[in-house]
Amino acid sequence: MADVQSVSTGKLDDGYLVRMIGIDKYFGRVCALKGVDFRVRYNEIVSLVGDNGAGKSTLIKILSGFHTADRGEIFFEGKKVHLGSPRDAKNLGIETVYQEQALAPHVSIPRNVFMGREITKVLGIMDGRRMHAESMRTIERLGLQIKDTGAVVEALSGGQRQGVAIARVLYFKAKLVILDEPTIALSVKESQQVMAFMKQLRSEGISVVFITHNLFHAFQIAERFVVLARGELLADVDRKDSSVEHLSQLVISGHHEEK
Amino acid sequence: MENQKLIPRLLSYKVSFTLIVFVALLVIFQIFTPGHTFFQRANLFAMARLAPDLGIVTLGVGILMICGEFDLSVVSTIPISSYVFVKLLGFGVPLWINLIVTLGVGVVIGLGNGFLVTRTRLPSFILTLGTMLFWKGLLYASSLMMPIGIRSWLPPGSWLENILVGIIGGVFPVQALWLVGFASLLAVMLHFTKFGNWIFVTGDNETAARAMGINTSAVKIMAYVGVGVLCSVVGLMQCLRIESFSPNQGVGVELKSIASAVVGGTALTGGIGSVIGIFVGTLTIQIIENGMILLGLPAFGIGTFIGAVVIMFAVLNKYISRWSSR
Predict the structure, then answer these.
(1) Engineering a disulfide at A65: which of A89, A114, B165, B269 sits with its beta carbon 3.0 to 4.6 angstroms away?
(2) Could you report the per-residue pLDDT of A195-212, keeping only the tens digit for each?
(3) Is the model's pLDDT at B109 over the cut of 80?
């Protein structure tokens, strides 16, 4: 870490898209994160795992601008950044997809995809035709089939809804997509579909942070696992150096196993 | 395209069921009213003159409901606007300045409601019950509940009267045009503009809307201001029509407007509704009132029937939305 601080220009070019260094976060007197390092490479799916209360959401909320860290530095594309608001994060290309929080159920797919960033002609009149065409094109790019493209989001399956939410960040050229428990409420088949979306994102050159409780899902798709426990970094391992058993041991015990 | 699947889309707006009931009621009333007076000119004229009162308020209230909030204070905004207008007439303020100030009453009350609701995040039904009583109390205290005629200061035939409550060619009340005009304008705003989409998503999933960078508080405040201004217009129209301020102006409109919006397919939970639905809904409520009177039913019992219709539509909406989202 010392070498990082010695970089006087505040630039850090080491092949990482994101580098969070020594992150501390307190809520009042409660320490939510202590000295956590978290890195994401370009073109990589990283899975962030850990039990409830491990600090996963806090870390992600810092990265997506909802919270600010009390200490530590964040580098994005090698540049030191300040994420003071979700807007700051979005402007950099960091997009977060929260389960069930992303979409308006009674509104059509294009209006959901373009929510808050509608394509307009004059006087704020939306270009419905273009919004429809662009959103459907992006959804197809994800490999998602939707028959009734005029349907409201409520009529879609859980996997399709995740697809719509992911299509949104794909369209708006995210560089890093954070998926918070995207498979939690889904059937086996739909979970596979969502994981296929993640692969598609990676093949488009987008890095993915996949937060999950399901280590089998994590192991199936992620190249690297970051395990948090009680606000501290417990492990940061590549898939080849790990196994589902190993991860589950770490998550359950909250300690490194003694060998 | 957005126009594809027109029929499911119309059904999802639920307006079709309101339309069916509306047309059925028209037929029933025409057949069963003694002497078939329903479609007579005098009756249509009376309705075209009176319907915009509730209709214009309901446009605002319905859109606010789509946005996820209620406003009971409409029943105070209407007479206060009328009162301010008459008072300013008495002070000899030029008519156009008076008009601006009167509409400003709606802006102020709307801003107050909007800030209160978005800052406290408490149920707007209760908060606007509070502001309704607050403003009404102020009105009663300052007017002492006495009506004030306008004719001492405003001779008949002023431009404002012609514009707001005139009668075109001696047959067509201009108020009806205002209702249609506001409805058209608001329909474009709600269904075709960016801001309209923000209203829907704010009412449908406020968390998502905020996460997407929409300032949902500002959207709601705007919707409240819209309601306020529309109420001021109605207060002013009524004042000019009855040629006086009356402290009883607008009585009952706070709940009738919500009822009309529900009959028009607006969800009580926000996120669902349409201007055409709200429009047909308010007309439905009003032809029921009118038709019942023509049928010679006891006028004081009309509430019972309207109540039943509102409940019927609230239940119907629930089932339609399940059915159409399949």
Answers:
(1) A89
(2) 999 999 999 999 999 999
(3) yes
- Does A1 have pLDDT greater than 50? no
More confident residue, B302 or B277: B277
The CATH number of residue B117's host domain is 1.10.3470
> Per residue in A119-152, is it b (16+ CB within 10 Å) or e — as a string?
bbeeeeebbbeebbebbbebbeebebebeebbbb
Is the Cβ–Cβ distance between B325 and A152 less than 8 Å?
yes
**8 Å CB contact between B205 and A153:** no
Cβ-based neighbour number of residue B103 at 10 Å: 20
In whole angstroms, give the CA distance from residue B35 to residue A194: 67
Percent of chain B having pLDDT more than 90?
A: 72
pLDDT of residue A126: 95
**CB-based contact A21:A72 (threshold 8 Å):** yes
Phi, psi of B169 (to 5 degrees): 60, 20
User: Would B1 be classed as within a structural domain?
Assistant: no
What lies within 8 Å, CB to CB, of B80 at 6+ separation is: B105, B109, B135, B138, B139, B235
Quote the tokens at residue B218: 């500002």
Cβ atoms < 10 Å from Cβ of A116: 18
- Domain ranges (residues) in chain A: 1-93+210-253
- Joined tokens for residue B181: 């005009």
CA neighbours closer than 13 Å in the CB half-sphere of residue B317: 24
User: Given a cut of 70, is residue B323 above it in pLDDT?
Assistant: no
A163: contact with B, CB 8 A cutoff: no
> Please, which pLDDT band fits residue B36 given cuts at 50, 70 and 90?
confident
pLDDT band at B322 (very low <50, low <70, confident <90, very high): low
Total domains in chain B come to: 1
* CB atoms B212 and A115 under 8 Å: yes
**CB within 8 Å: A150 and B197:** no
Q: Give me the phi and psi of A33, to 5 degrees please.
A: -140, 140
Q: Could you list the residue range(s) of the whole structural domain that residue B242 is in?
A: 6-30+37-324
Q: Is the pLDDT of residue A4 over 70?
A: no
Q: Does B192 touch chain A (CB under 8 A)?
A: yes
Q: What is the mean pLDDT of residues B67-84?
A: 97
**pLDDT for B162 beyond 80:** yes
Considering the domain boundaries, does residue B102 fall inside one? yes
- B15, B280 in Cβ contact below 8 A? yes
Closest partner residue to A115 among B195, B209, B326, by Cβ?
B209
State yes or no: pLDDT of B2 exceeds 70.
no
Task: Give the dihedral of Cα atoms B272, B278, B284, B286; nearest 10 deg.
Answer: 130
Residues near A165 by beta carbon (within 8 Å), at least 6 away in sequence:
A97, A102, A103, A112
Cβ-proximal residues to B176 (8 Å cutoff; 6+ apart), any chain: B48, B49, B51, B52
Chain A closest CA to B104's CA: distance in Å? 24
What top-level class would CATH report for the domain A1-93+210-253? alpha beta
Residues in chain B: 326
pLDDT tens by residue, B209-267: 988 889 999 999 999 999 999 999 999 999 999 999 999 999 999 999 999 999 999 99
pLDDT, residue B73, reads 97
DSSP for A150-185 reads: TSBGGGS-HHHHHHHHHHHHHHTT-SEEEEESTTTT
